[in-house]
């Protein structure tokens, strides 16, 4: 038994290395282990990150009834360590005799339409065009930052909708989830641009309304697919919360305001690299929180975790400014308190999701 547990743990470590420790990619592997009843062996394993621990706890709670704690050898019908590794790593699609349920899932498919006639695609294309036109009036020093990011996120909406026009139900959900996340990220960049007065309130309202329309169209589309073609499939809830109602998001916007305000002071005029880092890390925390408001839990973890990493990077930059004597400690305390409060909220939300208390976030 101990030998089997050890080999499962080793196989997981090997998979982590293979996917370069990406929380989103490893989530599929963890879910597969949970469905097989083996995820419990990873619960107290060392050398894994906090997001992984939360994901393991989440899937352990979700598939607690599946877990096999005794007679693993008999259940897995293992004769050698080689066979054990194969059994652990085997994906559902590699099974030599697919279950009746899996065969049914394979038959569920969609009709492929001309995506350019789809109203969601048209709206996304219109949004991208308007944003590119708008960004021509942004300050030159934002071209490598806000301009590139907002144009990228707007383009991603349209591209993901186009890639979602295929026969596979699951992949359509995946691509539309990416599009929804990109739409929310686009709104975040628009809000930050409004805060810096790069755009007017009227311009923001027009483009924000357009992103909202795209999200609603995609959500309605997925809801209809789940009800009709997706019956019996393990598909996520297509409805996502409004990121503007999330306290950590609004505080992160406030953090960006304060970072821009402080880095405009004369003391920072000769510190272009430091200014760039501070602004990039602050805005990245907002963008990742927004993009995390999509369909799949592993993606939420990935973006929330990326937001926390950006906040940690910001802390390092703030320390540098303190060491250089650019800003006194007292002036940075308010910013640091705000940064810590955002990070604490994200950590709590991730923990709540793993306990099944906040899956809608």
TrEMBL record:
Spans annotated as Disordered = 87-107
The record's annotation in InterPro entries points to: 23S_rRNA-intervening_sequence (IPR012657), 23S_rRNA_IVS_sf (IPR036583)
Record SUPFAM superfamilies:
IVS-encoded protein-like (SSF158446)
What is the designated name of this protein? Four helix bundle protein
Query: Which species is this UniProt entry from?
Result: Niallia hominis
């Amino acid at each position: 038994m101990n030998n089997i547990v050890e080999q499962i743990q080793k196989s997981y470590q090997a998979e982590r290395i293979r996917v370069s420790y990406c929380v989103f990619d490893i989530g599929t592997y963890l879910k597969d282990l949970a469905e097989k009843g083996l995820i419990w062996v990873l619960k107290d394993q060392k050398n894994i990150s906090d997001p992984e621990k939360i994901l393991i706890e989440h899937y352990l709670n979700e598939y607690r009834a599946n877990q096999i704690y005794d007679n693993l050898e008999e259940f897995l019908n293992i004769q050698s360590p080689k066979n054990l590794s194969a059994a652990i790593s085997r994906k559902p699609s590699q099974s030599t005799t697919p279950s009746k349920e899996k065969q049914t899932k394979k038959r569920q498919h969609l009709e492929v339409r001309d995506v350019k006639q789809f109203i969601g695609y048209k709206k996304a294309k219109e949004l991208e065009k308007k944003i590119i036109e708008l960004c021509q009036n942004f300050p030159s020093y934002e071209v490598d930052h806000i301009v590139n990011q907002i144009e990228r996120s707007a383009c991603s909406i349209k591209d993901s909708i186009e890639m979602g026009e295929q026969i596979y139900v699951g992949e359509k959900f995946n691509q539309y989830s990416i599009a929804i996340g990109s739409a929310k990220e686009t709104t975040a960049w628009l809000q930050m641009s409004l805060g810096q007065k790069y755009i007017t309130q009227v311009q923001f309202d027009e483009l924000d309304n357009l992103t909202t329309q795209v999200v609603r169209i995609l959500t309605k589309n997925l809801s209809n697919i789940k009800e009709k073609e997706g019956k019996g499939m393990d598909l996520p809830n297509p409805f996502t919360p409004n990121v503007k109602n999330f306290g950590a998001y609004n505080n992160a916007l406030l953090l960006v305001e304060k970072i821009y305000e402080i880095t405009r002071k004369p003391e920072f005029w000769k510190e272009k690299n430091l200014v760039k880092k501070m602004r990039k890390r602050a805005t990245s925390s907002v963008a990742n929180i927004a993009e995390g408001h999509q369909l799949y839990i592993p993606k939420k973890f990935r973006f929330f975790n990326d937001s926390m990493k950006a906040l940690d990077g910001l802390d390092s930059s703030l320390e540098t400014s303190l060491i250089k004597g650019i800003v006194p400690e007292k002036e940075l305390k308010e910013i640091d308190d705000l940064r810590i409060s955002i990070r604490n909220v994200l950590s709590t939300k991730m923990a709540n999701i793993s306990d099944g208390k906040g899956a809608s976030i």
